[in-house]
Design a protein that fits this description.
single chain, alpha/beta, four-stranded mixed β-sheet, 16% strand
Length: 248
Amino acid sequence: MPIISQEGVSCTFILGLLKLHEPLDAARKKVILLQDKIANDPYYAKVPSILKKRTANGYYLHAKDDIPEVRKEAFELIRSINCSFEAVVARKIYYLFEKKHHGNESEFYADLLSHLLKNRLGRFDRLVLNIAERKRCTTLNNLQKGMDKALIHYQTRHPGKMQISKVVFNVQKPTLEPLLNVADYLCWSIQRVFEKGETRYYDYINDKISVVWDIYDFAGAINGRNYYSKTRMLTEANCINEKSPKMH
């Protein structure tokens, strides 16, 4: 029985692509400095979520677990980084998941990945993607399935045109690649809109978000109204969880 919309179960799954427009090492250093500051700040000394991570593998930014004060610092950091972000939002529609993805989470992931990649094929000689580890979804075999689907999309839109991009997948843990934590925060800010109707985080960093594609908004897709950008922003009306009160 589907449990979507029940307490603790999200209504959407989001994949995002972060592009840095400044040296990677410089942006990475900014994240590391903030994480070290938070981990060693006496003000946060007894915060359970910080203590748990610091004791296990070292503290890293994670929007879902972080307390409001940390989130504020993280969003300020993101505003200081020269970057852009694209996201594909997939509503968790049970019959579609069963029919299109055969009830398989890995297939669901590969399909979304293909939509993130399809417009980049043929534009670059080489793409190196750092992927946040997600169990079976991010095996090299499943990532290649996403790549193969992206190639089909590309060839359908550009018949006869060669795809020359070489794609390299680096699957990493968020504790080892700090820039993945920036992508996590950007995804979370978008998810809050769809899950809670809460736009304050998204509004605050919207200039970093190039495109949000609500891929299974079939009504909006008829006239291209399922795409959002800096000039056509998400609003509380994009909340799809009927149990969540709209935020004002």
